[in-house]
Amino acid sequence: MCAQISSEIGNFDKLPGFVAEAQEMDLELRLPDVNESGVRFVPTPDARGIRYGLAGIKGVGEAAAEAIVAEREKNGRYTGFLDFCMRLAGSLACNKRVLENLAKTGAFSSIEPNRAKLFGNIEFAVKKCQQKVKEEASAQANFFDLMADGGEEKVSDEELAEIPPFAPAEDLKNERDLLGVYVSGHPLQACRRVISEVATFKTSQLAEPEEVDALLRAQPVDKWKKKSNPHLKDERALKHLDVRMVGILAACTVKLGKPRPDGTPGQKWAILQLDDGSGGFLDAFCFAKAWEKHSSVETCVDQLVMLSGEVSYRVNYGKDDKLDKKHPEVGDLNFTVREARPLAEALDGLSGGLRIRLRYDDPELGDKAVRIREAILKSPGRLPVFLELSHQDGTQVEVDLGPSARVAVSVGFLSELAKVVPQADTSFRPDDKVYLDPPERKPWE
């Protein structure tokens, strides 16, 4: 498995699929580690996982990775961050960008788990390395060199300034940006409940054509598709499935369409990359008409969003058949966005409120109620919040926390809430409508 992943090292498009395959084999992908990683992916000593290869970290490269591994194999494990830097001073591995990316991906965790501390001390470390290289180049040794054993300057991480750690969400974002996948956790871990309740379709289902085909068979033929593709016989491609998808908007790429024959400029459209935690990223296509209405979602990258639209098969034509359309071919399944909204805004139109179940006889009831209210106040919004208090005799009492306790549902809020109550004790109870905008009348209606 390590060899298979290593063959595509640096290819972030294929990495999530390999990770999912490894997980099915009960193998865990672990963060890169300067004291354990190879240049490429290697098995962990306990044979239960795969250690991320140093050359696979964006901005590190094979030359720097080889220098790190070679020095470790020659002179032993790195005992500290400054020890690492001084031993590799003058090499590509001591480049500022390389050090930044190693720190942000947790590659020094066996030395110092606080990634922000190391990241904030890189300039200090680089200056020490530059001074060492300069002294070596001039063949001079200062007083401290002469007094130290072996003529080498002794360094200690006690010299590093103390810096508060990054927020967990920032650590995870750095992993995704620089490793291509989340490794130490997933920002959607605390969002499983709301995704399962609100989403009617998952990205992983697109990899199961038979399952999608069964859903499509129950749908009516789309008259507009039939009219646009008169020679298409495969009914699968003449139907679509209206779905809601929920996840983190990982990226938004705005495109400009080709100019029209009359010379007017092309219209903007976008590719929205969604991560719903079910496996890999989904490229969702938001074409000009929908993008004109929902382009504000561009500001929601790294936030929870709800995308409503159509799952269907692409219909492809050869270059010389685009006018007559006599030889259609059924392509891949894809997702076309009709509406794109921040999840907090979508829930205002879908849900009557967030309900949180608590036991009346819970000795920590008061403390939990206070912590819930504090989490809400950190994320003010418009969604009502209710406490459902269960008595031992089966009686339930619903308490509306009132207009001062309305919430905007976000990853941060859900993470705080998950620390107080299990996700199974929360509910959003969304209604069944896929689209929040009033439906437009079709040309044939």
Q: Helix/strand/pairing class, anyone? A: alpha+beta
Rounded radius of gyration (Å): 27 Å
- Uncertain segments: none
Tally the structural domains. 3
In short:
With 445 residues, the protein is α+β, with helices and mostly antiparallel strands. It has helices at 2-6, 15-24, 61-75, 81-87, 96-104, 115-120, 122-137, 143-147, 168-179, 192-198, 209-217, 223-228, 288-294, 343-350, 365-378, 411-418; strands at 28-30, 42-43, 49-51, 241-256, 268-275, 282-286, 304-316, 329-342, 354-359, 380-383, 385-390, 396-400, 426-427.
Explain this structure:
It is a single chain. This protein has 445 residues and is an alpha+beta fold. It folds into three domains: 178 residues, no CATH class; 128 residues, no CATH class; 75 residues, no CATH class. Helix content is 32%, strand content 20%. It has a five-stranded mixed β-barrel with strand order 4-5-6-8-7. A four-stranded mixed beta sheet has the order 12-11-9-13. α4 packs parallel to α7. The N and C termini lie far apart (55 Å). The model has no long low-confidence stretch (mean pLDDT 88).
